[in-house]
Amino acid sequence: MKKIIWLEMVLIGSSILIFRSVWTFLDSIPWATSRNGLTLLLAVGIVATLVALRGIEAHSAKEDEVNRDK
After folding, report:
1. What does the alpha-carbon distance between residue 11 and residue 15 come to, in Å, rounded to a whole number?
2. Nearest-5° angle of CA 16, CA 21, CA 25?
3. I want to staple 26 with a disulfide (CB 3.0 to 4.6 A). Which of 15, 32, 39, 59 is the partner?
């Protein structure tokens, strides 16, 4: 169990580094810092979030159904 906690901590730390790197990279691109670029990135982020959440919800519902049938 301790190994999984350590790996989760590594995952969190690496996610922070990736997030910061992507943020800095986008700040270096002129169109990404413009009003239109930020609006586009926000819209893409919202759509990606909704797709991911719906996928997670559907997966969880299937698992619940399988566990109920057992």
Report:
1. 6
2. 150
3. 32
pTM attached to this predicted model: 0.71
pLDDT digits (tens, 9 = 90+) for 26-50: 999 999 999 999 999 999 999 999 9
Those residues whose C-beta lies under 8 Å from the C-beta of residue 37, and which sit 6 or more positions away, are 29, 31
pLDDT tens digits, residue range 11-25? 999 999 999 999 999
DSSP the chain: -HHHHHHHHHHHHHHHHHHHHHHHHHHTSGGGGSHHHHHHHHHHHHHHHHHHHHHHHHHHHHHHHHHHH-
